[in-house]
Amino acid sequence: MSRNIKKYDERKNCIYEKTSSGLEYWYKYDKNNNKIYEKNYSGEERWYKYDKNFNEIHYKESGDYEDWKKYDKNNNLIYFNNSNNDECWYEHDDNNKIIHYREICGYEWWCKYENNKQKMITKEEFDVIKLKNNF
Fold first, then answer.
1. What's the CA gap between 63 and 71, in Å, rounded?
2. Tens of pLDDT along 78-105?
3. Residues near 92 by Cβ (< 8 Å), separated by ≥ 6?
4. Predicted local distance difference test score (pLDDT) of residue 2
5. Could you write out the DSSP letters of every residue in 64-97?
6. Gap between the Cα atoms of 60 and 45, Å rounded
7. Among residues 123, 87, 133, which one has the least CA distance to residue 106?
8. Last residue of a domain, which of 63, 89, 114?
């Protein structure tokens, strides 16, 4: 029976992996142990960039795909766009929970939380809550 083989750097990051079926993967990391590069057995590559808070802000594949992200001061994702022309915005409450989501195509939803469970609401209900809570 074959098993996976893994090699690690001095910081215990996996830098090489060979699966039991013979597929190989290579990885590189920055000084903060964030994965910044990977390559797989078929030569496909991926690159990652991070902000000072270690949030992924840029992702690129060796093909045509790429995406970008922005975060607020609480490290909540607030904006996403990619090379497929997808674009979305997120709004969070004081507890860092998503309360509003909007896509470039016009799709949009609002929510509130009851007993820590997300509940979809109308824009009108959302506006009332926003006014009431001053955010």
1. 26
2. 999 999 999 999 999 999 999 999 999 9
3. 72, 74, 76, 78, 98, 99
4. 62
5. S-EEEEEE-TT--EEEEEETTS-EEEEEE-TTS-
6. 8
7. 87
8. 63
Q: In what order do the strands lie in the sheet with 14-18?
A: 5-8, 14-18, 24-29, 35-40, 45-50, 56-61, 66-71, 77-82, 87-92, 98-103, 108-114, 117-121
Distance from C-alpha of 129 to C-alpha of 82, rounded to nearest angstrom: 32
Q: How many domains does the chain have?
A: 2
Residue among 101, 70, 67 at smallest CA distance from 86: 67
Structural domain for 30, as ranges: 1-63
pTM above 0.85, yes or no: no
Q: Which of 41, 63, 85 is the last residue before a domain boundary?
A: 63
Are residues 56 and 72 part of one domain? Answer: no
- Cβ neighbors of 2 (< 8 A, separation 6 or more) are 20, 21
